Amino acid sequence: MTGIGLGASMVQGIPAFGREISVEEALTPVDVKLKKRMADVALNAARSKGATYADVRIGRYLNQVIATREKQVQNIANSESYGMGVRVIANGSWGFAATNNLDNDSIAKAAEMAVAIAKGNAKLLVEPVQLAAQKGFGEVGWKTPVEVNAFEVPITDKVSMLLNANSEAMKGGAKYVNSNLFMVNEQKYFASTDGSYIDQDIHRIWPTFTVTGIDPSGGKFETRNALSAPMGMGFEYLTPKDTEKIKGGPVTMYKKRYDLMEDIKEATVHVAEKLKAKPVLPGKYDLVLDPTHLFLTIHESVGHPTELDRVLGYEANYAGTSFLTLDKWESKRFNFGSKAVNVIADKTEPGSLGAVGYDDEGVKCGSWDIIKDGILVNYQTIRDQAHILGLKASQACCYADSWESIQFQRMPNVSLAPGKTPLSAAEMVKNVEKGIYMFGRNSYSIDQQRYNFQFSAQLAYEIKEGKIVGMLKDASYQANTQEFWNSCTQLCDKNDYRLGGTFADGKGQPGQVSAVSHGSPTSRFNGVNVINTGRKLG
Protein backbone atom coordinates (compact mmCIF):
# COMPACT_ATOMS: atom_id res chain seq x y z
CA MET A 1 0.00 0.00 0.00
CA THR A 2 1.13 3.53 -0.73
CA GLY A 3 -0.01 6.93 0.37
CA ILE A 4 -2.78 8.79 -1.43
CA GLY A 5 -1.46 9.60 -4.89
CA LEU A 6 -2.69 11.52 -7.91
CA GLY A 7 -5.32 8.93 -8.72
CA ALA A 8 -6.78 9.08 -5.25
CA SER A 9 -7.16 12.84 -5.51
CA MET A 10 -9.90 12.26 -8.10
CA VAL A 11 -12.10 10.39 -5.64
CA GLN A 12 -14.89 12.46 -4.14
CA GLY A 13 -14.80 13.20 -0.46
CA ILE A 14 -11.30 12.27 0.74
CA PRO A 15 -11.22 14.44 3.87
CA ALA A 16 -8.12 16.17 5.16
CA PHE A 17 -7.79 13.74 8.06
CA GLY A 18 -7.58 10.66 5.79
CA ARG A 19 -5.11 7.95 6.82
CA GLU A 20 -3.70 4.85 5.18
CA ILE A 21 -5.23 1.56 6.31
CA SER A 22 -5.09 -2.11 5.38
CA VAL A 23 -7.83 -3.81 3.39
CA GLU A 24 -8.66 -5.96 6.43
CA GLU A 25 -9.18 -2.88 8.58
CA ALA A 26 -11.49 -1.40 5.95
CA LEU A 27 -13.72 -4.46 6.20
CA THR A 28 -14.18 -4.15 9.98
CA PRO A 29 -17.34 -2.11 10.72
CA VAL A 30 -17.88 0.19 13.69
CA ASP A 31 -20.42 -1.10 16.22
CA VAL A 32 -23.72 0.75 15.74
CA LYS A 33 -24.31 0.73 19.51
CA LEU A 34 -21.06 2.61 20.00
CA LYS A 35 -22.10 5.19 17.40
CA LYS A 36 -25.42 5.72 19.16
CA ARG A 37 -23.67 6.28 22.51
CA MET A 38 -21.31 8.82 20.94
CA ALA A 39 -24.22 10.60 19.24
CA ASP A 40 -26.12 10.87 22.51
CA VAL A 41 -23.11 12.46 24.20
CA ALA A 42 -23.11 15.19 21.53
CA LEU A 43 -26.88 15.73 21.53
CA ASN A 44 -27.06 15.98 25.32
CA ALA A 45 -24.11 18.39 25.46
CA ALA A 46 -25.66 20.62 22.78
CA ARG A 47 -29.02 20.78 24.55
CA SER A 48 -27.39 21.50 27.89
CA LYS A 49 -25.76 24.61 26.38
CA GLY A 50 -28.99 25.96 24.92
CA ALA A 51 -29.41 24.34 21.51
CA THR A 52 -33.06 24.14 20.43
CA TYR A 53 -32.12 21.64 17.71
CA ALA A 54 -29.05 19.48 17.11
CA ASP A 55 -27.95 16.77 14.72
CA VAL A 56 -24.86 14.60 14.67
CA ARG A 57 -23.14 12.86 11.75
CA ILE A 58 -20.58 10.18 12.49
CA GLY A 59 -18.83 9.37 9.25
CA ARG A 60 -16.35 6.70 8.25
CA TYR A 61 -15.21 7.26 4.67
CA LEU A 62 -13.26 4.51 2.91
CA ASN A 63 -11.61 5.06 -0.47
CA GLN A 64 -9.66 2.59 -2.55
CA VAL A 65 -7.91 3.57 -5.79
CA ILE A 66 -5.95 1.46 -8.25
CA ALA A 67 -4.14 3.30 -11.04
CA THR A 68 -2.26 1.65 -13.91
CA ARG A 69 -0.51 2.66 -17.10
CA GLU A 70 0.38 0.18 -19.87
CA LYS A 71 2.21 -2.64 -18.04
CA GLN A 72 2.79 -0.76 -14.77
CA VAL A 73 0.84 -0.29 -11.56
CA GLN A 74 1.21 3.40 -10.81
CA ASN A 75 -0.52 3.51 -7.46
CA ILE A 76 -2.67 1.60 -5.00
CA ALA A 77 -4.20 3.65 -2.21
CA ASN A 78 -6.45 2.60 0.66
CA SER A 79 -7.56 5.43 2.93
CA GLU A 80 -9.91 6.00 5.83
CA SER A 81 -11.30 9.16 7.41
CA TYR A 82 -13.36 8.89 10.59
CA GLY A 83 -14.91 11.58 12.74
CA MET A 84 -18.00 13.47 13.87
CA GLY A 85 -19.72 16.69 12.87
CA VAL A 86 -22.23 18.44 15.14
CA ARG A 87 -24.73 20.99 13.80
CA VAL A 88 -27.05 22.99 16.06
CA ILE A 89 -29.56 25.81 16.15
CA ALA A 90 -29.20 28.20 19.09
CA ASN A 91 -30.80 31.65 19.36
CA GLY A 92 -32.29 31.03 15.91
CA SER A 93 -28.96 30.57 14.14
CA TRP A 94 -26.84 27.68 12.82
CA GLY A 95 -23.57 26.60 14.39
CA PHE A 96 -21.25 23.73 13.43
CA ALA A 97 -18.12 22.06 14.80
CA ALA A 98 -16.32 18.77 14.12
CA THR A 99 -13.75 16.47 15.69
CA ASN A 100 -11.82 13.34 14.80
CA ASN A 101 -11.18 12.62 18.50
CA LEU A 102 -14.13 10.45 19.49
CA ASP A 103 -13.73 10.22 23.25
CA ASN A 104 -16.59 11.62 25.34
CA ASP A 105 -14.80 14.81 26.37
CA SER A 106 -13.83 15.73 22.80
CA ILE A 107 -17.34 15.00 21.53
CA ALA A 108 -18.93 17.17 24.23
CA LYS A 109 -16.48 20.00 23.51
CA ALA A 110 -17.32 19.89 19.81
CA ALA A 111 -21.04 20.13 20.59
CA GLU A 112 -20.45 23.02 22.99
CA MET A 113 -18.33 24.77 20.37
CA ALA A 114 -21.12 24.42 17.80
CA VAL A 115 -23.55 26.08 20.23
CA ALA A 116 -21.09 28.90 20.95
CA ILE A 117 -20.66 29.51 17.22
CA ALA A 118 -24.44 29.56 16.72
CA LYS A 119 -24.86 32.14 19.47
CA GLY A 120 -22.12 34.23 17.92
CA ASN A 121 -23.76 34.01 14.50
CA ALA A 122 -27.11 35.00 16.03
CA LYS A 123 -25.77 38.49 16.76
CA LEU A 124 -25.73 39.11 13.01
CA LEU A 125 -28.99 37.32 12.30
CA VAL A 126 -31.62 39.03 10.14
CA GLU A 127 -34.15 36.20 10.18
CA PRO A 128 -34.16 33.08 12.38
CA VAL A 129 -33.76 29.65 10.82
CA GLN A 130 -37.09 28.06 9.86
CA LEU A 131 -36.84 24.29 9.79
CA ALA A 132 -39.49 22.23 8.06
CA ALA A 133 -41.07 19.73 10.43
CA GLN A 134 -39.45 16.32 10.48
CA LYS A 135 -40.57 13.31 12.50
CA GLY A 136 -38.01 11.10 14.17
CA PHE A 137 -37.59 7.60 12.71
CA GLY A 138 -36.04 5.94 15.73
CA GLU A 139 -33.31 3.40 15.01
CA VAL A 140 -33.33 2.56 11.29
CA GLY A 141 -30.80 1.65 8.61
CA TRP A 142 -30.21 1.57 4.85
CA LYS A 143 -27.62 -0.17 2.68
CA THR A 144 -26.69 0.02 -0.98
CA PRO A 145 -27.95 -3.35 -2.30
CA VAL A 146 -24.57 -4.66 -3.46
CA GLU A 147 -24.03 -8.23 -4.61
CA VAL A 148 -20.24 -8.12 -4.20
CA ASN A 149 -18.49 -5.69 -1.87
CA ALA A 150 -15.70 -4.23 -4.03
CA PHE A 151 -13.44 -3.88 -0.98
CA GLU A 152 -13.62 -7.64 -0.46
CA VAL A 153 -12.32 -8.47 -3.94
CA PRO A 154 -8.57 -9.20 -3.74
CA ILE A 155 -6.30 -6.38 -4.89
CA THR A 156 -4.47 -8.82 -7.17
CA ASP A 157 -7.70 -9.59 -9.04
CA LYS A 158 -8.46 -5.92 -9.58
CA VAL A 159 -4.91 -5.13 -10.71
CA SER A 160 -4.95 -8.09 -13.13
CA MET A 161 -8.24 -6.90 -14.59
CA LEU A 162 -6.84 -3.43 -15.34
CA LEU A 163 -3.51 -4.69 -16.70
CA ASN A 164 -5.30 -7.18 -18.95
CA ALA A 165 -7.43 -4.35 -20.30
CA ASN A 166 -4.30 -2.28 -20.93
CA SER A 167 -2.75 -5.21 -22.78
CA GLU A 168 -5.76 -5.47 -25.08
CA ALA A 169 -5.52 -1.77 -25.91
CA MET A 170 -1.81 -2.03 -26.72
CA LYS A 171 -2.42 -5.10 -28.90
CA GLY A 172 -5.06 -3.11 -30.76
CA GLY A 173 -2.61 -0.35 -31.64
CA ALA A 174 -2.93 2.12 -28.77
CA LYS A 175 0.22 4.13 -28.06
CA TYR A 176 -0.66 4.82 -24.43
CA VAL A 177 -3.35 3.64 -22.04
CA ASN A 178 -4.24 4.55 -18.46
CA SER A 179 -6.84 2.59 -16.50
CA ASN A 180 -8.21 3.22 -13.02
CA LEU A 181 -10.65 1.74 -10.56
CA PHE A 182 -12.21 3.94 -7.88
CA MET A 183 -14.19 2.47 -4.98
CA VAL A 184 -15.98 4.38 -2.22
CA ASN A 185 -17.73 3.22 0.94
CA GLU A 186 -19.46 5.84 3.11
CA GLN A 187 -20.51 4.52 6.51
CA LYS A 188 -22.72 7.30 7.80
CA TYR A 189 -24.56 7.53 11.10
CA PHE A 190 -27.06 10.34 11.68
CA ALA A 191 -28.78 11.26 14.95
CA SER A 192 -30.91 14.26 15.87
CA THR A 193 -32.98 15.76 18.63
CA ASP A 194 -36.00 14.89 16.45
CA GLY A 195 -35.46 11.30 17.55
CA SER A 196 -33.72 9.69 14.57
CA TYR A 197 -30.79 7.28 14.73
CA ILE A 198 -30.00 6.35 11.12
CA ASP A 199 -27.18 4.00 10.11
CA GLN A 200 -26.33 3.87 6.38
CA ASP A 201 -23.77 1.89 4.37
CA ILE A 202 -23.26 3.42 0.90
CA HIS A 203 -21.14 1.93 -1.90
CA ARG A 204 -19.99 3.43 -5.21
CA ILE A 205 -17.67 2.19 -7.96
CA TRP A 206 -16.12 3.65 -11.12
CA PRO A 207 -13.92 1.78 -13.61
CA THR A 208 -12.43 4.07 -16.25
CA PHE A 209 -9.62 4.39 -18.79
CA THR A 210 -8.11 6.64 -21.45
CA VAL A 211 -6.74 5.19 -24.68
CA THR A 212 -4.40 7.35 -26.80
CA GLY A 213 -3.52 6.82 -30.45
CA ILE A 214 -0.85 8.74 -32.38
CA ASP A 215 -0.43 9.33 -36.11
CA PRO A 216 3.29 8.56 -36.64
CA SER A 217 3.45 10.58 -39.86
CA GLY A 218 2.45 13.87 -38.30
CA GLY A 219 2.49 13.37 -34.53
CA LYS A 220 -1.21 14.15 -34.08
CA PHE A 221 -2.96 12.26 -31.31
CA GLU A 222 -6.51 11.38 -30.33
CA THR A 223 -7.99 9.87 -27.18
CA ARG A 224 -11.09 7.99 -26.16
CA ASN A 225 -12.21 7.62 -22.57
CA ALA A 226 -14.20 4.73 -21.15
CA LEU A 227 -17.94 4.86 -21.74
CA SER A 228 -18.59 3.37 -18.31
CA ALA A 229 -20.71 5.20 -15.76
CA PRO A 230 -19.80 5.61 -12.09
CA MET A 231 -22.47 3.66 -10.24
CA GLY A 232 -23.96 3.13 -6.81
CA MET A 233 -23.22 -0.59 -6.98
CA GLY A 234 -20.73 -3.21 -5.89
CA PHE A 235 -18.14 -5.10 -7.92
CA GLU A 236 -20.94 -6.92 -9.75
CA TYR A 237 -21.04 -3.88 -12.08
CA LEU A 238 -17.89 -5.29 -13.70
CA THR A 239 -19.50 -8.64 -14.50
CA PRO A 240 -20.64 -8.33 -18.14
CA LYS A 241 -24.16 -9.36 -19.15
CA ASP A 242 -25.40 -9.39 -22.73
CA THR A 243 -28.88 -8.45 -21.50
CA GLU A 244 -27.39 -5.22 -20.15
CA LYS A 245 -25.83 -4.18 -23.48
CA ILE A 246 -27.21 -2.16 -26.38
CA LYS A 247 -25.61 -3.19 -29.67
CA GLY A 248 -26.26 -2.47 -33.32
CA GLY A 249 -24.95 1.09 -33.51
CA PRO A 250 -21.44 2.47 -33.94
CA VAL A 251 -20.76 2.02 -30.20
CA THR A 252 -21.68 -0.73 -27.73
CA MET A 253 -23.50 0.79 -24.77
CA TYR A 254 -23.97 -0.52 -21.22
CA LYS A 255 -26.75 -0.37 -18.64
CA LYS A 256 -26.39 -1.96 -15.16
CA ARG A 257 -23.35 -4.06 -16.13
CA TYR A 258 -20.14 -2.97 -17.82
CA ASP A 259 -17.77 -4.94 -20.07
CA LEU A 260 -14.34 -3.35 -19.57
CA MET A 261 -12.53 -5.58 -22.07
CA GLU A 262 -15.08 -5.00 -24.82
CA ASP A 263 -15.13 -1.24 -24.30
CA ILE A 264 -11.34 -0.86 -24.34
CA LYS A 265 -11.07 -2.93 -27.54
CA GLU A 266 -13.64 -0.68 -29.21
CA ALA A 267 -11.82 2.38 -27.89
CA THR A 268 -8.61 1.42 -29.76
CA VAL A 269 -10.60 1.18 -32.98
CA HIS A 270 -12.25 4.53 -32.29
CA VAL A 271 -8.99 6.43 -31.72
CA ALA A 272 -7.68 5.12 -35.04
CA GLU A 273 -10.87 6.35 -36.72
CA LYS A 274 -10.64 9.72 -34.95
CA LEU A 275 -7.14 10.25 -36.37
CA LYS A 276 -8.61 9.96 -39.87
CA ALA A 277 -11.98 11.60 -39.22
CA LYS A 278 -13.01 14.63 -41.26
CA PRO A 279 -13.63 17.96 -39.53
CA VAL A 280 -17.25 18.95 -39.01
CA LEU A 281 -18.66 21.72 -41.20
CA PRO A 282 -20.29 24.37 -38.99
CA GLY A 283 -24.04 24.79 -39.31
CA LYS A 284 -27.42 23.65 -38.05
CA TYR A 285 -27.81 19.95 -37.34
CA ASP A 286 -30.29 17.64 -35.72
CA LEU A 287 -28.45 16.07 -32.79
CA VAL A 288 -28.92 12.52 -31.55
CA LEU A 289 -27.39 12.51 -28.07
CA ASP A 290 -26.54 9.29 -26.27
CA PRO A 291 -26.97 9.17 -22.46
CA THR A 292 -23.16 8.86 -22.04
CA HIS A 293 -23.04 12.41 -23.40
CA LEU A 294 -26.41 13.91 -22.44
CA PHE A 295 -25.97 13.30 -18.70
CA LEU A 296 -23.47 16.16 -18.48
CA THR A 297 -25.73 18.58 -20.36
CA ILE A 298 -28.52 17.66 -17.95
CA HIS A 299 -26.20 18.14 -14.98
CA GLU A 300 -25.06 21.62 -16.02
CA SER A 301 -28.20 23.07 -17.64
CA VAL A 302 -30.95 21.44 -15.54
CA GLY A 303 -29.45 20.09 -12.32
CA HIS A 304 -27.49 23.13 -11.20
CA PRO A 305 -29.95 25.88 -12.19
CA THR A 306 -32.78 24.19 -10.26
CA GLU A 307 -30.82 24.17 -6.99
CA LEU A 308 -32.82 26.59 -4.84
CA ASP A 309 -29.77 28.17 -3.19
CA ARG A 310 -28.47 29.22 -6.63
CA VAL A 311 -31.93 30.55 -7.55
CA LEU A 312 -31.95 32.67 -4.37
CA GLY A 313 -28.38 33.88 -4.85
CA TYR A 314 -27.11 32.14 -1.70
CA GLU A 315 -24.70 30.18 -3.89
CA ALA A 316 -22.72 32.25 -6.38
CA ASN A 317 -18.98 31.87 -5.83
CA TYR A 318 -18.76 28.32 -7.17
CA ALA A 319 -20.13 28.30 -10.76
CA GLY A 320 -22.66 31.07 -10.40
CA THR A 321 -26.36 31.47 -9.72
CA SER A 322 -29.36 30.57 -11.92
CA PHE A 323 -31.57 32.12 -14.57
CA LEU A 324 -34.53 30.11 -13.19
CA THR A 325 -35.62 32.80 -10.75
CA LEU A 326 -38.64 32.38 -8.47
CA ASP A 327 -40.92 34.50 -10.64
CA LYS A 328 -40.59 31.92 -13.43
CA TRP A 329 -41.71 29.13 -11.10
CA GLU A 330 -44.47 31.28 -9.58
CA SER A 331 -45.95 31.93 -13.03
CA LYS A 332 -46.65 28.17 -13.36
CA ARG A 333 -46.19 28.49 -17.11
CA PHE A 334 -42.48 29.10 -17.70
CA ASN A 335 -41.56 27.20 -20.84
CA PHE A 336 -38.30 25.48 -19.96
CA GLY A 337 -38.48 22.93 -22.79
CA SER A 338 -40.74 21.16 -25.25
CA LYS A 339 -43.68 19.05 -24.08
CA ALA A 340 -41.46 15.98 -24.53
CA VAL A 341 -39.23 17.15 -21.67
CA ASN A 342 -40.00 15.69 -18.24
CA VAL A 343 -37.24 15.95 -15.65
CA ILE A 344 -37.45 14.02 -12.38
CA ALA A 345 -35.39 14.35 -9.19
CA ASP A 346 -34.93 11.00 -7.48
CA LYS A 347 -32.82 10.06 -4.46
CA THR A 348 -33.90 6.42 -4.54
CA GLU A 349 -33.14 5.15 -8.07
CA PRO A 350 -31.36 1.76 -7.80
CA GLY A 351 -27.77 1.81 -9.02
CA SER A 352 -27.53 5.59 -9.01
CA LEU A 353 -24.76 7.49 -7.24
CA GLY A 354 -27.18 9.60 -5.23
CA ALA A 355 -29.30 6.72 -3.97
CA VAL A 356 -29.58 6.73 -0.17
CA GLY A 357 -32.37 6.02 2.29
CA TYR A 358 -32.09 9.33 4.15
CA ASP A 359 -30.25 12.57 3.50
CA ASP A 360 -27.80 14.27 5.87
CA GLU A 361 -30.65 15.97 7.74
CA GLY A 362 -32.40 12.68 8.48
CA VAL A 363 -35.12 13.23 5.86
CA LYS A 364 -36.43 10.13 4.08
CA CYS A 365 -35.63 10.26 0.37
CA GLY A 366 -38.08 10.18 -2.52
CA SER A 367 -38.72 11.60 -5.98
CA TRP A 368 -40.54 14.59 -7.49
CA ASP A 369 -41.04 16.45 -10.77
CA ILE A 370 -38.82 19.41 -11.64
CA ILE A 371 -39.90 19.91 -15.25
CA LYS A 372 -43.35 18.59 -16.24
CA ASP A 373 -44.35 18.60 -19.93
CA GLY A 374 -41.73 21.29 -20.51
CA ILE A 375 -42.89 23.57 -17.64
CA LEU A 376 -40.78 24.45 -14.58
CA VAL A 377 -42.75 23.09 -11.61
CA ASN A 378 -40.24 22.70 -8.76
CA TYR A 379 -36.69 23.05 -7.46
CA GLN A 380 -34.44 21.18 -5.01
CA THR A 381 -34.74 22.04 -1.30
CA ILE A 382 -33.57 21.20 2.21
CA ARG A 383 -35.23 21.75 5.59
CA ASP A 384 -34.46 25.44 6.05
CA GLN A 385 -35.51 26.25 2.46
CA ALA A 386 -38.82 24.39 2.26
CA HIS A 387 -40.92 27.27 3.62
CA ILE A 388 -39.70 29.52 0.78
CA LEU A 389 -41.62 27.37 -1.68
CA GLY A 390 -44.52 26.79 0.68
CA LEU A 391 -43.56 23.14 1.13
CA LYS A 392 -44.42 21.33 4.35
CA ALA A 393 -41.37 19.07 4.16
CA SER A 394 -37.83 19.02 2.82
CA GLN A 395 -37.08 17.18 -0.43
CA ALA A 396 -34.06 15.47 1.21
CA CYS A 397 -31.37 17.31 -0.77
CA CYS A 398 -28.93 17.87 2.09
CA TYR A 399 -25.43 16.37 1.91
CA ALA A 400 -21.91 16.82 3.27
CA ASP A 401 -18.87 15.18 1.69
CA SER A 402 -17.23 14.51 5.08
CA TRP A 403 -17.87 14.44 8.80
CA GLU A 404 -15.77 17.62 9.01
CA SER A 405 -17.94 19.50 6.47
CA ILE A 406 -21.26 21.15 7.24
CA GLN A 407 -24.14 19.72 5.23
CA PHE A 408 -25.92 21.96 2.75
CA GLN A 409 -28.14 21.81 -0.33
CA ARG A 410 -26.78 19.41 -2.97
CA MET A 411 -28.15 18.03 -6.19
CA PRO A 412 -30.17 14.78 -6.14
CA ASN A 413 -30.17 12.47 -9.15
CA VAL A 414 -31.79 14.61 -11.86
CA SER A 415 -32.94 12.64 -14.90
CA LEU A 416 -34.76 13.04 -18.20
CA ALA A 417 -37.69 10.63 -18.34
CA PRO A 418 -37.83 8.29 -21.35
CA GLY A 419 -40.48 8.53 -24.04
CA LYS A 420 -43.66 6.47 -23.79
CA THR A 421 -43.75 5.40 -27.44
CA PRO A 422 -41.55 2.39 -28.33
CA LEU A 423 -38.44 3.73 -30.08
CA SER A 424 -34.84 2.55 -30.32
CA ALA A 425 -31.81 4.70 -31.08
CA ALA A 426 -31.38 2.94 -34.44
CA GLU A 427 -34.97 3.84 -35.37
CA MET A 428 -34.41 7.43 -34.30
CA VAL A 429 -31.34 7.75 -36.54
CA LYS A 430 -33.31 6.49 -39.58
CA ASN A 431 -35.51 9.59 -39.46
CA VAL A 432 -32.65 12.13 -39.37
CA GLU A 433 -31.78 13.81 -42.69
CA LYS A 434 -28.80 15.90 -41.56
CA GLY A 435 -27.46 15.23 -38.10
CA ILE A 436 -24.72 14.26 -35.71
CA TYR A 437 -24.77 11.33 -33.26
CA MET A 438 -22.72 12.05 -30.10
CA PHE A 439 -21.34 9.77 -27.37
CA GLY A 440 -19.36 10.45 -24.18
CA ARG A 441 -18.48 13.60 -22.26
CA ASN A 442 -15.71 15.92 -23.37
CA SER A 443 -15.02 19.64 -23.04
CA TYR A 444 -17.81 22.04 -22.07
CA SER A 445 -18.52 25.53 -20.77
CA ILE A 446 -21.57 27.29 -19.37
CA ASP A 447 -22.12 30.83 -18.12
CA GLN A 448 -22.67 32.01 -14.55
CA GLN A 449 -26.47 31.84 -14.81
CA ARG A 450 -26.48 28.35 -16.37
CA TYR A 451 -27.95 29.68 -19.59
CA ASN A 452 -25.49 29.93 -22.51
CA PHE A 453 -23.38 26.83 -23.08
CA GLN A 454 -21.17 24.74 -25.33
CA PHE A 455 -20.62 20.96 -25.24
CA SER A 456 -18.51 18.52 -27.24
CA ALA A 457 -18.32 14.71 -27.20
CA GLN A 458 -15.85 11.83 -27.12
CA LEU A 459 -17.26 10.49 -30.38
CA ALA A 460 -19.31 12.18 -33.11
CA TYR A 461 -20.79 10.52 -36.21
CA GLU A 462 -22.30 12.20 -39.24
CA ILE A 463 -25.87 11.22 -40.17
CA LYS A 464 -27.07 11.68 -43.76
CA GLU A 465 -30.52 10.66 -44.94
CA GLY A 466 -31.03 8.32 -42.03
CA LYS A 467 -27.65 6.60 -42.19
CA ILE A 468 -24.42 6.95 -40.22
CA VAL A 469 -21.82 7.74 -42.87
CA GLY A 470 -18.64 8.26 -40.86
CA MET A 471 -16.90 9.82 -37.90
CA LEU A 472 -16.45 13.56 -37.43
CA LYS A 473 -13.98 15.52 -35.33
CA ASP A 474 -13.94 18.97 -33.71
CA ALA A 475 -17.76 19.06 -33.34
CA SER A 476 -19.28 21.12 -30.54
CA TYR A 477 -22.81 22.46 -30.16
CA GLN A 478 -23.80 25.87 -28.82
CA ALA A 479 -27.17 26.94 -27.43
CA ASN A 480 -28.90 28.50 -24.48
CA THR A 481 -30.69 26.26 -22.01
CA GLN A 482 -34.25 27.24 -22.93
CA GLU A 483 -33.60 27.13 -26.67
CA PHE A 484 -31.88 23.75 -26.42
CA TRP A 485 -34.52 21.96 -24.37
CA ASN A 486 -37.30 23.38 -26.55
CA SER A 487 -35.58 21.78 -29.55
CA CYS A 488 -36.03 18.30 -27.97
CA THR A 489 -38.45 16.50 -30.28
CA GLN A 490 -38.01 12.79 -29.65
CA LEU A 491 -36.99 10.42 -26.85
CA CYS A 492 -36.22 6.72 -26.96
CA ASP A 493 -38.24 4.49 -24.66
CA LYS A 494 -37.39 2.97 -21.29
CA ASN A 495 -35.41 0.11 -22.87
CA ASP A 496 -32.75 2.65 -23.88
CA TYR A 497 -32.70 4.54 -20.53
CA ARG A 498 -29.26 4.60 -18.89
CA LEU A 499 -27.42 6.38 -16.08
CA GLY A 500 -24.42 8.63 -16.40
CA GLY A 501 -22.88 10.68 -13.63
CA THR A 502 -19.93 12.08 -11.77
CA PHE A 503 -18.02 11.23 -8.60
CA ALA A 504 -17.03 14.85 -8.08
CA ASP A 505 -19.72 17.51 -8.51
CA GLY A 506 -18.17 20.56 -6.91
CA LYS A 507 -20.03 23.22 -4.96
CA GLY A 508 -19.61 25.58 -2.03
CA GLN A 509 -16.77 27.59 -0.56
CA PRO A 510 -14.75 25.94 0.93
CA GLY A 511 -15.51 23.51 -1.86
CA GLN A 512 -17.23 20.18 -1.30
CA VAL A 513 -17.82 17.40 -3.82
CA SER A 514 -20.68 14.95 -4.16
CA ALA A 515 -21.58 11.99 -6.35
CA VAL A 516 -24.68 12.28 -8.53
CA SER A 517 -26.25 10.39 -11.43
CA HIS A 518 -28.33 11.61 -14.36
CA GLY A 519 -30.40 9.19 -16.39
CA SER A 520 -31.82 9.64 -19.87
CA PRO A 521 -32.68 7.80 -23.04
CA THR A 522 -31.09 8.63 -26.39
CA SER A 523 -32.70 11.96 -27.34
CA ARG A 524 -33.11 14.07 -30.47
CA PHE A 525 -32.69 17.85 -30.63
CA ASN A 526 -33.54 19.61 -33.90
CA GLY A 527 -31.75 22.53 -35.54
CA VAL A 528 -28.92 23.01 -33.03
CA ASN A 529 -25.96 25.22 -33.91
CA VAL A 530 -22.74 23.20 -34.34
CA ILE A 531 -19.30 24.80 -34.52
CA ASN A 532 -15.86 23.50 -35.46
CA THR A 533 -13.43 23.72 -32.53
CA GLY A 534 -10.32 22.81 -34.53
CA ARG A 535 -7.70 25.27 -35.63
CA LYS A 536 -8.61 24.70 -39.27
CA LEU A 537 -11.14 22.77 -41.33
CA GLY A 538 -8.57 20.73 -43.24
UniProtKB/TrEMBL annotation:
One of its GO terms (biological process) is proteolysis. Gene3D superfamilies: PmbA/TldD superfamily. Keywords: Hydrolase, Metalloprotease, Protease. GO terms for cellular component: cytosol. Coiled coil: none annotated. Residues 54-118 form the Metalloprotease TldD/E N-terminal domain. Residues 282-531 form the Metalloprotease TldD/E C-terminal domain. The keyword Protease applies. InterPro entries: Metalloprtase-TldD/E_C (IPR045569), Metalloprtase-TldD/E_N (IPR002510), Peptidase_U62_metallo (IPR051463), TldD/PmbA_N (IPR035068), TldD/PmbA_sf (IPR036059). It comes from the Bacteria. Belongs to the peptidase U62 family. This is TldD protein.
